[in-house]
Design goal:
- The termini are far apart.
- This protein has 217 residues and is mainly α.
Length: 217
Amino acid sequence: MSSENQTIDKIADPKRSFIEEARRAQIIDCAIDVIAEQGFAQASLSQIAKRAGISAGVISYHFAGKDDLIREVAAHVFTKGAAFIGPRVNGQPAAPDALRAFIVASVDYVAARPAYTRAIMNIIRAGRGETGQPRYDAALEAPRRDGFQQILRWGQDTGEFRAFDVAIMARTIIEAVDAVPPQLAVQPDLDMAAYGQELATLFDLATRAAPPQPSAE
């Protein structure tokens, strides 16, 4: 079984030097930290530049404004998430195993990179940009959604999962996982390992086919 939660590859501009790529990566990391800590509205280019120890003009050299930087932040977070989660899901022998691995790995990613996922949540809460366009490409979310749906269909095809609406179940799982970052923000001592296992068990029970009933003699 191969999950569709593949890494979204971004090919570096061959015209950029190694130093320029390193500076862009530094700015993206600092933007993530500022957005995670202060929220989207307060994460001005000047605040991000201050965190990076550079001038705002340096950011403007590498990015065409805040909207461009936010798009790169989102792409970075989703790409890193896919690289973290994908290897733990691919190769699972059965759909229930893959579903559990996907959910647990998703929560583990939040635990490993809390600022990353909190930044994305703050960007989402900020709504659309000034032009009315989404702040980042919605296609970035498709691999995770499609990966969950593929696993759910796999389990239904093998008879391990009961009949249910795959799209609704996948969305419910994602919403449950996405509730973790804000909970962690208000409860820093949250037992993330236990949280991940509990969510995995919850959806294992929600998706499993009922065992065959013994025939009455």
